[in-house]
Structure formats: structure tokens, C-alpha cells
Design brief:
Structural class: alpha/beta
Number of helices: 8
Helix content: 25-40%
Number of strands: 10
Radius of gyration: 17 Å
Bound molecules: adenosine-5'-triphosphate
CATH class: Alpha Beta
Largest sheet: 6 strands, mixed
Shape: globular
CATH architecture: 3-Layer(aba) Sandwich
CATH topology: Rossmann fold
Strand order of the largest sheet: 6-7-8-3-9-10
Length: 245
Amino acid sequence: MVAPPDNDVLWARGLHHAHGQSPALTGISLGVREGEILAVTGPRGCGKTTLLKCLSGQLVPDSGEVWFNSHPVHTLSATSRERLRLDRFGWIGTEPRLVPELTARENAALPLLVRGDGRRAAMQAATEWLERLDVADCAKRRPAALDRAQQQRVAVARALTTTPQVLFADEPTAPLHRADAAQVLRTIVNAARSHALSVVLATQEAEATTLADRTIALLDGRRAGAAQAEGPAETEGREECSLSV
Ligand SMILES: Nc1ncnc2c1ncn2[C@@H]1O[C@H](COP(=O)(O)OP(=O)(O)OP(=O)(O)O)[C@@H](O)[C@H]1O
């Protein structure tokens, strides 16, 4: 094994993975720098979700290496990968997947409670994130009483309450209407900017690639080449929005 470059928070080399007989990744290498928002684009089935799951330790690649902060992830035990995900990574999926019996605040506090933080501190952190994401008025409501965009913002809060170092977002705005999608996307970007988080964002939205620092395109499980120039996009990507994160 060769250690990754020092300035990459996350680094992967030669990732291959198949789901049964179905190849999903066929040799992907990439690095993500501290505070960088990296968009991963490509058509349905090109391997975006599988890539994010391998990078975040949810899946162990069939071959290849994943490193986080110069530590190998692909050789960790399942328990150590779980702990890593809980402490250092946040995950936002396409569906909010909130627990229906819990309030928005309890949902947002869940990762902290699962890892054993005190209830008072967990609820306080959840409240602060719901405020930053402009859904504080939803705190005491259950998911069924929230609209889709509010639910997804609560899911964003849940991913951020642990103050992760890397946030993985797998097509987080796909099921939303355009205006809601733009708002949720800017919420994620602004939270990342204000807290210097690295973000790996799987997306097919044009606006997402505009807000990202860098974009890579996948095709049939491998990189199709840089999809976007890095100079101007970086400037545009750092534009602020009105949300209070
Ligand atoms: N659990 C699974 N079992 C079998 N095949 C799978 C499984 N998950 C993904 N695949 C296959 O692996 C390939 C890559 O899928 P993946 O979900 O990673 O791509 P994607 O770019 O995220 O697609 P989408 O945009 O549809 O989510 C596809 O051919 C898909 O059908």
C-alpha cells in the first residue's frame, strides 16, 4: 500500500466493485481535499452510489484502496468502519428516511444519541442545526407533518449534528421540485462552506455542478474525465446564499 498525498482528506485508488455479477466500479481513482465540494455526475447506473458507499466505508470494494486522513479504510473491521462513519462522516440520501415516530429534533439528534452522547447535549446540537437550516419551527413536529423539502432539511441536520469531516450526499435533491431542490442544495453547500467540510455530492443537477469546486463524470463504472473547468467554477462555487448556516 502507498500512502495518499497529505492534502487529500479522502483518497481512493483503483476501486473495483461488483454487485453479484453486475460490475458497478471498474477502476476509479480520486482525491478530495479539505473543504472541497466534489460533484460526481453521470447517467443512471454509472456507479455514483456504489462509489459513495465505498468511499464512506459502507461497502468494502472488491479491490482498490480508500484512505481517510492518511489511514486506510478498506482494511478496517466492520465495527471500526461503523465508528468512523458515526464520528467523521455524514450521509444524506435521496430519501430523507426519517423515523416516523420521532420529532424532527429527535431525528436530527439520532446520530449523537446512537454514539452515546448525552441527551441534553444531543438535543441542543440538533436544535442549533435545525435553526441554521431554517427549519427550527419544525422541531417538535413528526415527519408526516412536514413537507418533502422540510424533511430533507431535517435529514441534512441529522447528517451535520456530529460535525463530520466529510459529508456524502447521494442525489439529495432528486425527488424535490426545482425551487425546493435549489434551496436544499444551497443549504448543503453553505453548511459545507461555513464549517470547512469536504463534500462528495452525487448529482445530475446542473446547478450542483456550478456550485461545486470540481466535477468528475462517471461512465460505466469508471471516470469519463473532468466534466468542467476548475477555474471559474471554483469562484462561482463559493458564492454565498441567504441561509443562516
Ligand atoms: N444491490 C445491487 N444489486 C445488484 N446490482 C446493483 C445493486 N446496486 C447497484 N447495482 C448495479 O450497479 C450499477 C451501478 O449502480 P449505482 O446505483 O452505483 O449507480 P448510480 O449511478 O448511483 O445509479 P442511479 O442514479 O440509478 O442511482 C448499476 O448497473 C446497478 O444496476
